[in-house]
Amino acid sequence: MIARAVSLAVILATVSCGAGVEPPQSLPVGRLVLHWTGAKTKVALGAESTLTLWLRADKQAKVSPPEVLAQLSDVGGLSVRALGEGRWTEREDQRIWSRDYALQWLRLGQQKLAPVTVEATIGDEKLDAASEELTFEVASVLDHPDTAAEVPNGLIVDPPPRAWWPFVLAAVAIGATVLLVRRWLRSRPAPEPRIPVVYALAPDQRALDRFRDIERRLVEHRIGQEELVVEVSETLRHFIQDGLGLQSVFRTSEEFLSAASTQIALPGQLALSVRGFLEQCDLVKFAAQRPSLELCQRLIATAREFVLTTRESAAPEPAEVADG
């Protein structure tokens, strides 16, 4: 009796394995076919939906189940996990494989599930197949009445009316602040008239003193290299305008050099140095070039040499103080 029971169990297990899972009627016919079933067109955000992937292939085909998780890993806003193991079902002339997958969409709106592909060979012939592209409408949970609890009307309470007194209090405070500021401004004493100061130093002496001050701040690390270039350039331009009577503060470098070539007699080497000086300053001011320490020292030396060479042509300035 025990032997017969064991034999009957083995026979039933064999029949069950051979029968496998019955494929759906919607599974297309073909030598190599991939097809999804169980897909819902509308799903809730974050909710899992179960789909079944079917693979139909000729018995002679050498085929392996598709790597679904790897192929769908690039789909944005989608989480996929396999449910159980894949199942093969043998038919007279075909083999059918199926496996369940849980899909979870994490992005609202219309989402597309890319096709899954598989390859097979029958002798020297190569076959390939792809599943259909599925489209899902993903909505929030509240868009689905079957997943959201209905709130009884008796529990719905209208929000209280917005209080108006904070706005009145804020308006009064702003008005009082404005009045206090206006009263304080009116009570301030009138500013004393500013008396323009006329420098007692000659233009060349002012420029040389400024160069020495810039060098001292450079040594003491109290001035940046870009700021140094700007100050040296402005100092030299003011000397040329105040001492030599040549408009240079509001001129470009090319305009100044063109005018200086006809109004100032400069030695050839100094003229080249001044041109290079202005070009380097323009690169720092307009091209954001970071000057080195050596370049800063060379620019100061060129500007000082220009002042010392042309100081004899500078117009003298009387040393006086403006009238009060």
Helix-strand blueprint:
Elements: H1 2-19, E1 32-37, E2 42-44, E3 48-58, E4 62-63, H2 68-71, E5 78-90, E6 94-105, E7 109-113, E8 117-122, E9 125-130, E10 134-139, H3 165-187, H4 203-219, H5 225-244, H6 253-263, H7 268-286, H8 293-310
Parallel strand pairs: 2-10
Antiparallel strand pairs: 1-3, 3-6, 4-8, 5-6, 7-10, 8-9
Please describe what this structure looks like.
The structure is a single chain. The strands form three sheets. The chain has a four-stranded antiparallel sheet with strand order 1-3-6-5. A three-stranded mixed sheet has the order 2-10-7, with no helix packed on it. It has two domains: 21-147, Immunoglobulins (Immunoglobulin-like, Sandwich); 203-313, no CATH class. α4 runs antiparallel to α8 and α5 (225-244) runs parallel beside α8. By secondary structure, the chain is of the alpha+beta class. The chain has helices at 2-19, 68-71, 165-187, 203-219, 225-244, 253-263, 268-286, 293-310, and strands at residues 32-37, 42-44, 48-58, 62-63, 78-90, 94-105, 109-113, 117-122, 125-130, 134-139. The chain contains eight helices and ten strands. The radius of gyration is 45 Å and the shape is elongated.
N to C succession of SSEs: HEEEEHEEEEEEHHHHHH
Q: What share of the residues does DSSP label as strand, in percent? A: 15-25%
Q: Do you know the CATH topology of the largest domain?
A: Immunoglobulin-like
Q: How many domain units?
A: 2
Contiguous low-pLDDT stretches (5 residues minimum) are 8-20, 144-151, 317-324
Across the major sheet, the strand order is: 1-3-6-5
CATH architecture verdict of the largest domain: Sandwich
Biggest pleated sheet: 4 strands, antiparallel
Specify Rg, calculated over alpha carbons: 45 Å
Mean of the pLDDT scores? 79
Count of helical regions: 8
CATH uppermost class of the largest domain = Mainly Beta
Strand tally = 10
Q: What level of helicity do the residues show?
A: 40-55%
Any idea what the shape is? Answer: elongated
Helix- and strand-based class? alpha+beta
Separation, N- and C-terminal Cα atoms: 134 Å
